[in-house]
UniProtKB/TrEMBL annotation:
Residues 12-72 form the HTH tetR-type domain. This is TetR/AcrR family transcriptional regulator. The keyword Membrane does not apply. Residues 35-54 bind DNA. InterPro entries: DesT_TetR_C, Homeodomain-like_sf, HTH-type_TetR-like_transc_reg, HTH_TetR. Pfam families: TetR_C_46, TetR_N. Keywords: DNA-binding, Transcription, Transcription regulation. It comes from the Bacteria. Transmembrane segments: none annotated.
């Protein structure tokens, strides 16, 4: 009888396997310390195959940034129902953000730390992801602001700074939540909602914004 042929793994599947290993290695060890040998070993493939598929360490890292940025933005957008009130949309978006970054701490390290500190090309990829999230948050806030001011023509620039501040706070809070013990995505989201939506005034007087029941 002839030898049994094993089914060859599709290239796209193998590439994702390599990217999974690369994200974990970059996130855990940092871009400079991570080696292609270590990534190949974790992926269960040869180093020449990693180079064949992804050309170089720089190209591999860029592919990791792009994949994880797309996944994070997609998770936030998928978590928001635009038919709900503005505060609920913001809550759901924040909850989706913290849930995703909590489930994928190595990916968040790649996006939030490694990509920003190892070259302009990498930083530009991370900045594009951040700009998309800021634009999304701006739309959520401007709807609420127009309703509050009873001005349907209130320009986006009036809330652009608030969106930038909110995204910056979420980024810092995600980094903290991933290193602190027993901080759930719901707790992180509620902390930011109380700070951003209810405002410090309500928080200090004992009237915080209350998240909906899960």
């Amino acid at each position: 009888m002839g030898a049994v042929k094993t089914k060859r793994m599709p290239r796209a599947v193998r590439e994702q396997q390599m990217l999974d290993a690369a994200v974990e290695t970059f996130g855990r060890r940092g871009y400079m310390a991570a080696s292609m040998d270590e990534i190949a070993e974790l992926a269960g493939v040869s180093k020449p195959l990693v180079y064949l598929y992804l050309n170089s360490k720089e190209d591999l890292f860029t592919a990791c940034i792009r994949r994880e940025a797309e996944a994070l933005v997609g998770a936030v957008r998928a978590g928001v129902d635009t038919g709900l009130p503005a505060d609920r949309q913001l809550w759901d978006g924040l909850l989706a953000f913290f849930a995703h970054t909590g489930r994928h701490p190595h990916a968040w390290s790649v996006l939030h730390i490694q990509a920003r500190t190892h070259g302009e090309t990498f930083a530009a990829e991370a900045a594009a992801m951040r700009a998309e999230i800021v634009a999304f948050v701006t739309q959520l806030i401007v709807v609420a602001a127009r309703e509050a001011h009873r001005d349907p023509d209130l320009p986006e620039r009036e809330v652009a700074g608030l969106a930038e501040a909110l995204v910056g706070a979420a980024e810092s809070l995600a980094a903290w939540a991933n290193t602190a013990e027993s901080v759930t995505p719901r707790q992180a989201a509620a902390t930011l909602m109380n700070f951003a939506w209810a405002g410090l005034g309500n928080l200090m007087t004992g009237h915080p914004w209350s998240p909906p029941e899960p």
